[in-house]
């Protein structure tokens, strides 16, 4: 079978790769073509566009780059027509993928949405586009199945694919010695996009500059060393920080605390039971619009799934050196409750095997047609 997959950021690349491995196991006659990154590329098939070229965060950034985005959408449609896949698998990345879903369904292609957009948070009208322009909705958060049912659409709960990724992970016992780390670690995970790293990382660095722990940045695959080095130079912290590539789970496996940009990384950090502070800052214009449109109590997946504040969220003007320092002191004194809440959260998410369940669902859809 021919599979066309579209992922637009680092987390989608990770989950896309795990899904592709399971599709390989289910279908010996597989052929992959995809938009994604190194992880999907390592499984096999043809990479059309790397997500580093297509990731634009925030309303203002999208408006500024609208012509580029529209060109990518046209390229994607032309490439799908050329490839003629048996199924198109859309992985998160809603601004792009919802447009592809509508077009592809009207063209007669089978469309599966894996890791559906967070329409329960904002732009709830899009729930109808998801229902009309897909053949199958595969959701990864416990409450999403009931949310879609409320609007009359069926969705299958696969479980969260991060449980798969972490279950497959084996820590490297030489990690600390390889990077000459001989003390506790504070992990900095400032995000995977240029805009958010430029706004968030400097605040993180100022807050930890005088800490006794070793400071380790988890470098995003799509961001150059030069960008991190420029920020470290501005903060005069080149010799105080270790930049590590492609070993985020090794960092989290040894971290004492973590400062984490919003998104998938907050849940990854919780699954490793690392006490964390969530840090988010966007452009003023984008944040102003988002505040009017977004209908959720929290921005981190950890708090959203738990439906209560487990981890502290420092957002926009509240994200500053002083507030981060204060929250770190609170973690110094008592992080046991957060770790206990993490354990309850993990039980709520269920077992691993999300990628397997998603692959079987997709394969059965193709066979049934």
What attributes characterize this protein structure?
369 residues; alpha/beta; Rossmann fold; 2 domains; seven-stranded parallel sheet; six-stranded parallel sheet; globular
Structure description:
- The protein is 51% helix and 17% strand.
- Strands 3-2-1-4-5-6-7 form a seven-stranded parallel β-sheet, with helices on both faces. A six-stranded parallel β-sheet has the order 10-9-8-11-12-13, sandwiched between helices.
- The chain folds into two domains: 2-159 and 353-368, Rossmann fold (3-Layer(aba) Sandwich), CATH 3.40.50.2000; 175-349, Rossmann fold, CATH 3.40.50.
- The longest helix has 18 residues, at 66-83.
- α2 links the parallel β2 (31-36) and β3.
- It starts with a strand and ends with a helix.
- It has helices at 10-26, 38-43, 51-54, 59-64, 66-83, 94-106, 126-132, 144-150, 161-167, 175-178, 194-208, 225-234, 248-254, 264-271, 284-293, 301-306, 321-333, 336-349, 354-368; strands at 2-7, 31-36, 46-50, 87-91, 111-114, 136-139, 156-157, 185-189, 214-219, 241-245, 255-261, 276-280, 312-315.
- It is of the alpha/beta class and 369 residues long.
């Amino acid at each position: 079978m021919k599979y066309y997959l579209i992922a637009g950021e680092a987390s989608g690349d990770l989950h896309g790769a795990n899904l592709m491995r399971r599709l390989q196991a289910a279908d010996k006659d597989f052929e992959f073509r995809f938009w994604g990154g190194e992880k999907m590329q390592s499984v096999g098939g043809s990479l059309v566009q790397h997500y580093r070229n297509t990731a634009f965060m925030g309303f203002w950034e999208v408006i500024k780059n609208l012509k580029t985005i529209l060109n990518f959408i046209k390229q994607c449609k032309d490439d799908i027509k050329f490839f003629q896949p048996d199924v198109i698998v859309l992985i998160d990345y809603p601004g792009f993928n919802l447009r592809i879903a509508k077009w592809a369904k009207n063209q007669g292609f089978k469309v599966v949405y894996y890791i559906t957009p967070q329409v329960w948070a904002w732009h709830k009208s899009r729930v109808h586009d998801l229902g009309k322009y897909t053949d199958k909705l595969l959701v990864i958060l416990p409450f999403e199945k009931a949310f879609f049912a409320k609007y009359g659409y069926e969705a299958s709960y696969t479980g969260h694919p991060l449980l798969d990724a972490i279950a497959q992970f084996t820590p490297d016992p030489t990690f600390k010695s390889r990077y000459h780390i001989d003390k506790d670690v504070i992990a900095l995970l400032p995000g995977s996009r240029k805009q958010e790293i430029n706004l968030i990382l400097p605040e993180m660095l100022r807050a930890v500059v005088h800490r006794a722990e070793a400071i380790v940045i988890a470098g995003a695959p799509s961001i150059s060393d030069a960008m991190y080095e420029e920020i470290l130079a501005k903060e005069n912290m080149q010799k105080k920080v270790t930049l590590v590539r492609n070993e985020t789970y090794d960092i989290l496996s040894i971290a004492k605390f973590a400062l984490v940009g919003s998104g998938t990384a907050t849940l990854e950090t919780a699954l490793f039971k690392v006490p964390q502070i969530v840090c988010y800052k966007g452009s003023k214009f984008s944040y102003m619009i988002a505040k009017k449109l977004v209908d959720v109590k929290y921005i981190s997946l950890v708090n959203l799934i738990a439906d209560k504040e487990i981890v502290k969220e420092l957002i926009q003007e509240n994200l500053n050196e002083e507030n981060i320092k204060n929250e770190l002191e609170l973690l110094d004194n008592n992080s046991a409750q957060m770790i206990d809440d993490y354990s309850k959260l993990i039980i709520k998410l269920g077992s691993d095997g999300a990628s397997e369940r998603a692959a079987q669902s997709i394969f059965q859809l193709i066979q049934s047609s």
